[in-house]
Amino acid sequence: MSQAHLHASELFSVKGRVAVITGGGSGLGSIMARALAVNGASKVFILGRREEALRNTASQGPEGIIIPVQCDVTSKESLDAAYKSIAEKTDYVEVLFVNSGINGPSMVPGAPGPDGPPPLTEVREKLYSIPMSEFNKTMDVNVTGAYYTILAFLPLLEAANKRRPAPQRGVLTPPTAQVIITSSIAAFNRRPAHGIAYNVSKAAVDYLTKACSTMMLPYHIRVNGIAPGLYFSEMSQSYFGGDSTAGISEGEFPAEIIPLTRSGASKTLRGSSFGLRALPRGS
């Protein structure tokens, strides 16, 4: 009996898939876009505000596979325009990566000194000086933008499900349409490494994932989340001294911050994304 179906290339195949990735011009979104394209996806639409960054990512994949679409996820008008542009190029989308995000303002109290934590007046002054608009902007992109991105692309996700063949006994049915939302380990951290706004937004994203997975269950659209740790990206480069090769070896980060004592590598992120995409059923 042939064992070809057990090969990793089949278990985690994305051949012929049509995907949309927000925040696809840099960081984790760019990694996912290039990985999908190289491994046989037929179309990968990448959304983001900066056209130059989108085109740069597209140029690194097989010609014509990665398609840049300029979009601001905090604007319904921009999402509508992006949806219309994509719908003109494909009748369906099988997987939507909701990945756009920003760090937000640095809202970390001063580090404890030899005499203990900084005075409460100092903590209050530092945190209260941040405009509410900066806090709200983080939520607008990371939470509200994520939610409205999902809503915007539901028709194309539903269209993908309508293309699925009827179930046959003894034959594994292709996976249903899927949404994969990027959260962060920051959602679970008691001490914010960068800012409270970012951590709060990612905790909200975790709830959004659970709520949407339940809401979409009757429509057979799977909703899953990934919560990456520290990876080198445009957003996190300050933690790496600007060196993209730093951090991936054990011992480069304190264990109390990262138990593995190293950052994530791009191939581990690709593996997580492919593994989720390969799940046959469930939310």
From TrEMBL:
<keyword id="KW-0521">NADP</keyword>
<protein>
    <submittedName>
        <fullName>Short-chain dehydrogenase/reductase SAT3</fullName>
    </submittedName>
</protein>
<dbReference type="InterPro" id="IPR036291">
    <property type="entry name" value="NAD(P)-bd_dom_sf"/>
</dbReference>
<dbReference type="InterPro" id="IPR002347">
    <property type="entry name" value="SDR_fam"/>
</dbReference>
<dbReference type="Pfam" id="PF00106">
    <property type="entry name" value="adh_short"/>
</dbReference>
<keyword id="KW-0560">Oxidoreductase</keyword>
<dbReference type="GO" id="GO:0016491">
    <property type="term" value="F:oxidoreductase activity"/>
</dbReference>
<comment type="similarity">
    <text>Belongs to the short-chain dehydrogenases/reductases (SDR) family.</text>
</comment>
<dbReference type="InterPro" id="IPR052178">
    <property type="entry name" value="Sec_Metab_Biosynth_SDR"/>
</dbReference>
